[in-house]
Amino acid sequence: MKERHFIVKAIAQFIFFIGRLLLSLRYKVVMVNTDSIDKKRPVLFLPNHQAVVDPMILVSHIYPYKNIVPVVTSTYYDLPILNRFFKNWGAVRVSDIERGSRNVNVLNDISTAVKTAFNYQRSIVIYPSGQIAEQGFEKILNKKAAYQIVSELPGNVQVVGVKIKGLWGSRWSKAWTGKPPAFASNVLKGMLMCLANFLFFMPRRKVEISFEDITERCKKEVVDSRKSFNQYLEKFYNSKGVEKPLFLKGFFYTTSLKRKLPSSLLNEPSEKEGLHVIPESFPLAITKGVNKIINKKLERGEVDVSKEDHLVNDLGADSLSLVEIISEIESEFKVSSDVEISVFTNVKHLYALANGNLQENKILPDCSFGRRAPFYDFIKIKNLDSIPKQFIKRSSSHKGLPVFYDAVMGESTRGEFFLKACVVAEIIKKKCKADHVGIMLPALQSTSLLIVSTYLAGKVPVMLNWTVGNKVLEHCVKEASVEHVFTATSFVEKIKDQLPQSIHSKLIMMEKEVAKASVVTKIIGLVKSKFPKALRIRQELDDTAVILFTSGSENLPKAVPLTHGNIVHDLSSTLTTVDFSRNEKLMAILPPFHSFGFTVLSILPLITGVRTAYYPDPTDGKGIVAMIKQTSASLLVVAPSFLKIILSNANSDELSSVKYVVSGAEALSSDLKKLFQEMLPKALLIEGYGITECAPVLSLNPLQKQKDRSVGQVIKDVDCKILDLETNEILSPNQEGMICFRGENIFKGYLNKSIESPFIQIHKEWYYKTGDLGYLDNENYLFITGRLKRFIKIAGEMISLPSIEQILLENFGSEDEITVAVEGSDKSSAPQIVLFTIKNISIKEANDCLRKNNAPPIAKISRVEILPEIPVLGTGKVNYKLLKDKVENEGG
């Protein structure tokens, strides 16, 4: 800010003189107590704000007393004629939030400019309300601007409160139409009215402007709190009660106006102009999430919020805090809207924003899944050939039948998909000389395309998890000897910060390679797709079909090679246990690096032809719900954490097509089961159990009979034994021990042969030792009770960490997020159990809880660590390996 030239000063004085003269034609301004304005030091003027015109009246009448700098919104500051004058004058330009600006830094901009003005001994006018009044009284509520400026006020600055009276009911106030007046049209109307009244006969509105030195009181109140400061200002402005609107006639020759306040100021309408249709109800995740953001931004604590609450009158939001709330909602819920800020008046409008009702809906490609039912049989594996051989056979029939769908590629028929696979296979042959091909993509038909193309190219896919961190990802790539990783540019852009540089150098962008593929490559692919029997498929059942990695929740991930036989036998046995119609539409959201996602959501559609819709983000509840509606998906395969997100982001009618939900990877809570039954009473929730090394399904609740807390019956052709932990003897039904399995679906051993074998010999047969504890009942239903690696020995007794964790979860857990996790170690002389939590839980509270719930007396929490969040893996499981490292490294 520079010192103004004397010519600019003179022009300003002249302009304000003319301004006062013109305004006097309509307004009779009375100035009260101007002696309270200190002429020797800078002044911060804090006026109430009745109408758009009051700044012009106020500033033009103050200017003879003080060297004033106005704060001008961008809407007026940027006007071509006024811009140069405002700039030379030194006016403070601020973003006009009410007109749509989303500048969340506007408060800092104002504060910085005001400090600069005070340094130049200039005075400032700031409106604490931040917007023109909606009633005949002033509301400050929890506005921030004036509070922040006064809290940082230099010692030499005077604070003067300004009460403006007489403008409520003016055409420049909201009392006239219920909306902010249009500046240009009002100016034009004013000029015409002047002419119609022969300039000097226009009815004049009396406006009283009174001044009071409130410096000391403001400094006192600002020290207490923002609430105290704002309440003082409200009391100051409204000391004479509510002002009645004065609707002054515009022409001297007309009768008095008989006008009432607009209905929008008396009773808020159900829908604001500019908003789309607002639903009557919203998903639980929307209401809870938005309420949390509102309370956080308005510093309200955990106060109940109603959808009908008025954002300004009831909750005290100002334009700036509303921008912050909207920005966080858009970020948190992945939505955007061009609706003006002023349109948001009630909490329900914020719910609608978060729910996607206020944005232009992204139109999903057309999908015919819901319009056809071409089959009369069940989803079954009819032969035991390798995956590519079965895929080729399946693709040779019903070539025009749509089989895959996603938002990127739309709908693909069997014939189209097979052609693409043949072309991509040729590209893979040229780009990758090594046997192992890395694939790093979420649940998309492109991912399944890459998997089967890898088979047609005679290679082995290695499924990579990008969520595990640099060290673990580099470990996986090295362990599986991966030289090239197929992915997509748009996907890498989203996750590039999660990838180490060593991985970046191995990436091959699939869409770029397809685009630049030669004509010869495409012709070869086309010819092979037309003559599938001529394809030379080398893979047999005993050959490796994929390399997956264990979750790494307790150790570094282990590379698990599964054969074609493992996967095909697993699917065959699973589909013998349950009968799903081949007309079901499968919804695939689990990432393909997840064994459940790979086998059931990638390989199953490839070899059975079941129609499948893919969605890449399992945490995007609204997006998944929209995809389910678009495709009429009836069979949903999820992990419980993702199912909870979907249910929380949907209304029951939006999921009406869903008939079956198959859940695995983690235990189903009773609360989630209850929510499922409430929302989808006609659908069936089928819980299962599986392990990466077992391809992965091992048990599944049959459709005919579900057992609570059971992960189902062991699937056909798989043998399960429960062993005593001490003697390895086979236990009888209902006795808890180590769970072991034997079957054609179980792998032969880890890729790294130095890793300890997980197999144990029982009656001369080798069984896979899962590390999980549980029991079988008399009907061969399996119940999981814990995990051996999550047991520690204290005083010679085995203590189950999951059981301790479950007790604490039931007392301190939350439906919305993971709040507690328990890990421990018995490697030191003093075994310890550590509670990790995001809540403020004391050791005494935790141990009292364990005692009340009959935990073993020696099972005590040794220490509590409060974390910003509980670390989780990409699968949604708690990262116990990271927590165990913290226990052992910090426990000594």
Could you explain how this protein is built, in words?
The chain is α/β, with parallel strands linked by helices and 892 residues long. Helices cover 35% and strands 18% of the residues. The protein has 30 helices and 33 strands. A hairpin with a 2-residue loop joins strand 26 and strand 27 (765-776). Helix 9 (215-224) packs antiparallel against helix 10 (226-237), helix 15 (387-395) packs across helix 24 (595-608) and helix 25 (621-631) packs across helix 26. The longest helix is centred in the first third of the chain and has 18 residues, at 6-23. It is elongated, with a radius of gyration of 35 Å.
Entry summary:
This protein has 892 residues and is an alpha/beta fold. The chain contains 30 helices and 33 strands.
Largest sheet descriptor: 9 strands, mixed
List segments where confidence is low: pLDDT < 50 over at least 5 consecutive residues: 267-274
SS elements, strand count: 33
Sheet-strand content, in percent, reads 15-25%
Q: What class, by secondary structure content?
A: alpha/beta
How many helices? The count is 30
CA(first)-CA(last) distance = 59 Å
Radius of gyration: 35 Å
- Mean pLDDT over all positions: 83
Portion of residues within helices: 25-40%
